[in-house]
Specification:
The protein has 264 residues and is α+β, with helices and mostly antiparallel strands. The chain is 51% helix and 19% strand. It has a six-stranded mixed β-sheet with strand order 3-8-7-6-4-5, with helices on both faces. The chain has a two-stranded antiparallel sheet with strand order 1-2. Residues 8-75 form the Transcription regulator TrmB N-terminal domain.
Length: 264
């Protein structure tokens, strides 16, 4: 009984409507006076509810004095409710105002506490993959968050500049010099959210955060290129170094020097 009333209310009927419908279905038919007496409620409330249910088509009313009310068969009632709900859902789908989706935004975060709190929330919410490109100092600060994510089954891809020992099996990759005295870091979570920032020495901790697909795509592409170069270096070793110089410095110098801030 209670479960039936619960589901009727879930379908949009009031508590009084639900009780009257169940009572009429049990008894077959009844007048307003009889229903009110069996339910122990006021006749005025019952009469008003019976009239409302009849107008909506869920009750039949027989002529005579007093009028007798009866419920539809259960399959008729549920079919009527289903048709009404489908009609309403179709109307809502057609008529609901449609707005353009919000464009991804960029926002800045400053200060160690703010940057790492923001980052910690995203790492804790990661479901599929985390891509990390950091220096040894930042890797140590993120160690526990990344280990917890990996324990949840999140795929972890990372590279670490500045020496070994930050995490198990670190992967130092070829890098280019950057302006300023800080250490750059970047992270991409689930290929939708990313943070790119700088920290350390005399450089205040600052980061840019966005879900813009262009930025996440650029960071993932840069990371993949570094991995390719790393694997080539591991595979070709001395031959690659002899031809292009350690860490490909000869090649990098051709392009990076033309963008050096000191020469601008």
């Amino acid at each position: 009984m209670d479960q039936l009333l619960h589901h009727l209310r879930h379908l949009g009927f009031t508590e009084m409507e639900s009780k009257i419908m169940v009572e009429l279905a049990r008894q077959g038919s009844g007048s307003g006076y009889e229903v009110a007496k069996r339910l122990g409620v006021s006749r005025s409330n019952v009469y008003a509810t019976l009239q409302r249910l009849e107008q909506r088509g869920f009750l039949r009313c027989s002529p005579g004095e007093p009028a007798k009310y009866s419920m539809l068969k259960p399959e008729e009632m549920t079919r009527m409710i289903s048709d009404q709900m489908h009609s309403s859902l179709a109307y809502v789908e057609r008529s609901m105002p449609k707005s353009e989706p919000e464009k991804p935004v960029f926002y800045n975060i400053e200060g160690d506490k703010n940057v790492f709190e923001n980052l910690g929330r995203e790492l804790a919410a990661a479901k599929h993959e985390i891509v990390v490109d950091v220096w040894r100092e930042e890797a140590e600060l993120l160690r526990e968050d990344m280990q917890r994510a990996e324990a949840r089954g999140v795929r972890l891809l990372w590279s670490c500049e500045g020496g070994e020992g930050a995490l198990d099996q670190p992967m130092p990759l070829p890098g280019l010099p950057i302006s300023g005295t800080g250490r750059k870091f970047s992270l991409v979570v689930d290929r939708r959210w990313c943070m790119l920032g700088m920290r350390g020495n005399s450089c205040p901790t600052q980061a840019v955060v966005t879900e813009h697909p262009v930025m996440t795509g650029l960071l993932l592409s840069h990371f993949a290129q570094d991995l390719v170069l790393y694997e080539l270096e591991q595979d070709m070793g001395r031959e690659l170094e002899n031809r292009y110089g350690r860490r490909y410095a000869d090649i990098a110098a051709r392009y990076w020097s033309s963008f050096s801030p000191e020469e601008q």
